[in-house]
Amino acid sequence: MQRTDHAEEPERSSGRLGVLIPGLGSVATTFAAGLDLIRRGETDPVGSLTQLGVIRDAAGEKARRIKDIVPLSSVGDIVVGGWDVVADDGYEAARAAGVLSEAHLESARECLRAIEPMAAVFDPRYVSRLEGSHVKSYTSLREAAELVREDIREFKRVNGLDRVVMISCASTEAYAQPRKAHHGLEDFERALEESDPAISPAMIYAYAAIREGVPYANGAPSLAVEIPALLQLAAELGVPVAGKDFKTGQTLIKTILAPGIRARALGLEGWFSTNLLGNRDGMVLEDPESHKSKEVSKLSALESILDPGLYPELYESMSHTVDINYYPPRGDAKEGWDNADLTGWLGYPMQIKINLLARDSILAAPLVLDLALLLDLARRSGMGGVQDWLSFYFKSPMTPEGLHPEHDLFRQLHRLEQELVAISEVS
Amino acid sequence: MQRTDHAEEPERSSGRLGVLIPGLGSVATTFAAGLDLIRRGETDPVGSLTQLGVIRDAAGEKARRIKDIVPLSSVGDIVVGGWDVVADDGYEAARAAGVLSEAHLESARECLRAIEPMAAVFDPRYVSRLEGSHVKSYTSLREAAELVREDIREFKRVNGLDRVVMISCASTEAYAQPRKAHHGLEDFERALEESDPAISPAMIYAYAAIREGVPYANGAPSLAVEIPALLQLAAELGVPVAGKDFKTGQTLIKTILAPGIRARALGLEGWFSTNLLGNRDGMVLEDPESHKSKEVSKLSALESILDPGLYPELYESMSHTVDINYYPPRGDAKEGWDNADLTGWLGYPMQIKINLLARDSILAAPLVLDLALLLDLARRSGMGGVQDWLSFYFKSPMTPEGLHPEHDLFRQLHRLEQELVAISEVS
Amino acid sequence: MQRTDHAEEPERSSGRLGVLIPGLGSVATTFAAGLDLIRRGETDPVGSLTQLGVIRDAAGEKARRIKDIVPLSSVGDIVVGGWDVVADDGYEAARAAGVLSEAHLESARECLRAIEPMAAVFDPRYVSRLEGSHVKSYTSLREAAELVREDIREFKRVNGLDRVVMISCASTEAYAQPRKAHHGLEDFERALEESDPAISPAMIYAYAAIREGVPYANGAPSLAVEIPALLQLAAELGVPVAGKDFKTGQTLIKTILAPGIRARALGLEGWFSTNLLGNRDGMVLEDPESHKSKEVSKLSALESILDPGLYPELYESMSHTVDINYYPPRGDAKEGWDNADLTGWLGYPMQIKINLLARDSILAAPLVLDLALLLDLARRSGMGGVQDWLSFYFKSPMTPEGLHPEHDLFRQLHRLEQELVAISEVS
Amino acid sequence: MQRTDHAEEPERSSGRLGVLIPGLGSVATTFAAGLDLIRRGETDPVGSLTQLGVIRDAAGEKARRIKDIVPLSSVGDIVVGGWDVVADDGYEAARAAGVLSEAHLESARECLRAIEPMAAVFDPRYVSRLEGSHVKSYTSLREAAELVREDIREFKRVNGLDRVVMISCASTEAYAQPRKAHHGLEDFERALEESDPAISPAMIYAYAAIREGVPYANGAPSLAVEIPALLQLAAELGVPVAGKDFKTGQTLIKTILAPGIRARALGLEGWFSTNLLGNRDGMVLEDPESHKSKEVSKLSALESILDPGLYPELYESMSHTVDINYYPPRGDAKEGWDNADLTGWLGYPMQIKINLLARDSILAAPLVLDLALLLDLARRSGMGGVQDWLSFYFKSPMTPEGLHPEHDLFRQLHRLEQELVAISEVS
Fold first, then answer.
1. How many angstroms away from the CA of D252 is the closest CA of chain B?
2. Do C344 and D359 touch (CB under 8 A)?
3. DSSP string, C155-207
4. Fewer CB within 10 Å, N or C, chain D?
5. Residue pLDDT, tens place only, A48-107
6. Cβ <8 Å between A328 and C353
């Protein structure tokens, strides 16, 4: 990956920034509650690289906080809104999600109460395990897209916002293959008009965002902005887009460990991963089609990092299995168990086993913050189209056509830092 | 860390390279047997970065094997020798070590039989759990050092070697504090003369190597070359030295994971590590003094990587415990169990637990190969003194005075690669 | 469960005992090699309760080895034979299985070479992942059964055996529901005549054994002897039968732990189990139908032990998942990872996680020995039909009609010991 | 072990039962809060065998709750009190302990507030890591004992109690060897008079209880009632006593698993256990002397269950290590990691690793309830002296002189059930 040298001097970050979220569930409400407590100084923004991260200079001697070298919006200037298939306000949704403690829920109550979801675009063919009770009516998908665009404009107007970004935290949709309707912008808009079932709700939100000039990131593994039609539109309109699938748990750990294994030229015979999920996300993934979207997203990282083409002696005969299980006792916490079969000198086998007791929304919430701030920075710096320097945040990083995605967390970080330094240098 | 720009064009790597090893035990015999099988094409050099590692160019597009860009000695040109407190030849020592399979032992039998240890410098005060039955007689430590120097010259002559390096694989010595005898070269040589108990066997080997112009690396945590007297001598004579304590198991994994945790700005409340060792190494570490040397070596990595000074919100109140246990059923295999207590958004706790079923000698043997080849390269490139670009291989990396050691495996790798590229550019 | 008081004084155990095994694969060859080494005093019969187990008297003061209180056949008197779909002799099969070390293979070579499998009854509808190259030809399933009966008689004659038992170690067959053909003996024999596809190879072996008066145990989860037709036949002919599915790995551990959890009146919210299998067994279980047979067999134990009917406050809302994965790097070793979510006082959650690094054939082989000896003892003691006192050895214990199976390992052991004491008292 | 046949028909269980607890810390307050919530029907008595346990009749067909077959006191009739070195009331102590959720603390607030600790007998030589700010003044240890006896009588009077039991939940004292002062009652009383430092606070509480006719159990590993002097006194006065060291976490799991390993005649090469404790208990155990008391208590179970005398082939060369670590991030939760190295058929190695995420006080609280009820039952049934049928509850079960302790959880349970049945038969 190469440093993007086209950043312009970013526009000022003053004014209020709207963060619009399709899917006001556990991640979105945890994000919103955290913002509120951070603003009031009751907690630190743990997990947010933009707030706590440090960049060292080339000599490794001086270190500065990221937020001190690029002009990011302030946490205090963010306004959260969004859409959901359930009409619950943010407080009710947060309580149902079961992520936050009683004390945190009460402390952020007022702020959460103020988040009233707009009615969602919903299609049961794409998320068969959910029932939508708070959904838009429309006669064509084109009309659905128009309604979302109106929502964006109205949200901006009512809240007196200067800029808006959209970060999708919706449930995983059924696995979708690229189709004719996704190819060119004309194909896509005709398909909207004809309510072609190849167009998913996730694509409609992405389309609406781009049409409104709103930067867009996809936190779920669903096929959305990375279809050719929308990438073309984003490039043409100069709107930054990024995705997909927040890198939060097991895949995060794999993209940390695998570069270390490769660094030491250790071999790998196999890697087995199993996941226990107990929340709405887990239930949705019980549907075989949604499951497939997630599985495909999770499988690619290892092959990409270990690159059997470059290291045939070490990785060419690797077994890789990723298993996802809905296990209700786990609740919003999630658990991973991994076993990697390594080989060393003379081919002797060794094993490493990792048990991760994580929390989905707690890991995802700061990514919403970082992506909102960095996409907004990109927009102000004149950077449109796919932002592959944000690969750091995703399980399935999008790249400009013809380039391979980078999965190695440390190379992703290096790339992110290089880009921030480049932006800082033109600021 | 900065790239060292002083490398000269390396001298040609032709001719035979001797690798002299104090401590011809499990690591050394596993190394030697592997070399033999690699030469005969029966196995790949798994675990060796110099043989299988790849460097990508700045654009990340082209990739070349390390051994294709710098002029390293060939595996076929290496001759192994050394010293041990037991007179067993390499085959008997390998069999006693219990690392290699019957098939590997027989396949490498001839090569192992040819390794006859020279009598060792031994001091029971430094390794109380071993008995030395094959040790040198001398009337002063100066004489001991002279005997080792003669051994080096004789080994070179008998084997028709062009160059020699020394890689210490000796047992961990008792913890030693810096003393007067270690300060200046004169102090040190007077202490040798007076057989000062502050001079350990490890220091005598290091001294002899440097005096003979032989590059030296310390694979154990014992205090050896990093005393001021020997560092001064190495710098003056232009002999490359490196250390200490091979980074092979649990610490390797920690220095992979910790940079990933920091990259994501996740907090850490505590890290508990326990180790099961069943071999001679484990038995030696039962002695509280040797134990202390190891523990000190293992504790520093985390503090250094997570840097509570730069990240006070995340790491300033971290608990860190490292436990080492002698557990005979484990044999030469070694096992680690780690628990790290992470915090995320809003301070919520998460845990990661790692169970590592590793093999000490299998992980260490390729490091002997890499260090031998890279120190020899450094010598031919005119690079003397502390080689901190080799930090990648050590639990307690040595650095030139005034610099902080780098523990982050990925920064260490980056530095190593930068140095190799610099050498390749002057070649 | 109650002690069976009907045991007669057992006939003498003198003479040679044949053990005929459908499926001469990894378990059978490991069993045979072990017998050979035990006979020659090179190893102890680890894992065999009949050889090493001890029974304490009621007062808990005196303890005697089981083999000293009941008249079991001697290990030295056993002759092993069987059938397989592959023509490899025992040595080749053992080598292919990859269970035994080179040293053990060579030591038992002669004994293994002597085991030449007879051609198997094979039906690809029941084991779709295997190819049968060494199979019987017949025009009806009745003829197939006759051929097996002839094999038994011939094996007995050729080897000069006094008695024979059959222990099935065949691959898991596709899941089969009870059908009309299984109801009465007449139905079954008509179905044999008509080559009804409801009759599986496992049933044919069981039928042949019983018809020959040969005690039969089923080590796989396939539906075999527990169909009404064969149970009726076994009862009528006074032939002891037992099954099914050797309790060797994860289920063994669960039936140890679950009684302990219940003993302490701790609650259970959920239990998640995943398994990694790398051998032929694992490959066969990749077929969804064979998988189902295994899964059904593995799921029942927990529900039975924890009995939500008796303990509604503790176990009525438990989640239970068992996952089985084919993972080739594991080879004949097998690995389980379990997570149990416990609750304690005031409902607070706790977790226990178990990682089992086991070896399938190593755990199963001594069960073949014990079952052969105990079924032979039962036969000599006049005990026909279902031997539920052997539940100790099975994942899915068979019981006489109307009784619930006992899964609790300690109650199973207690029952086994009571029965042995009862037999010893009439001896 | 044999059934005790000497139980008399128990006296009626009517009236109020006092439970006096030396050490009103996390266990005692968790116990008290739980009682309160159980009485009000807000929770079930999870973890309590007396409340939820079931006994099956000999035929295994009928099952009845324990509390329905023996006349136990009712949970509603219990009054809790005790002593502590800190003057905090039960609510403050529970809050400091960090075991209970905010919701549980508030729900049980009134009940906890009512528990005001009496001043403790304290000796810093025995618990060096604690500071006692709420301690009795006395001029001799005899006076200290008298003060405790007065406290007992006063507590009984003020609360209108019919009967009292004492369950010690105090911190672990320094390891103490049996001394002269412990031998006979006269020695002991003379030592009290002389304030002999061989007399620990734990012994004083036990002495006071027995002298008052109050049944006593010791939940800590400290040397208390099992000294000859106190055992003699308990026997003479017919006061039931039991101990020691609640079996709650890792040892509980070991005494479940080890009987299962032995049942299957599997070998054991080694067992390594490590523990993370973060509460006051853990801090106290940092003191090497307290640590030793705990370690000795934890080591005996395995040797006793696996009995290398009876099973020399399987267990005679077993390594066993138990490690205890103070790790503050764990708080009142406690974590164990165990590795057991098993051997099977032909000596092949296997491993089982157990990670237990437990909660100390949550596991111990129901044991306080059970022991209080069962000791009171014993008292009413005329059973004095050591109650070895309560071994089920202890890490280091006390037995009458000359008998071996039973550690196998399932034999312990069997013994407990037999005794309850015997009592029920005379009721």
1. 21
2. yes
3. HHHHTT-SEEEEEE-PPPPPP----GGGSSHHHHHHHHHTT-TTS-HHHHHHH
4. C
5. 999 999 998 766 668 899 989 999 999 999 999 999 999 999 999 999 999 999 999 999
6. no
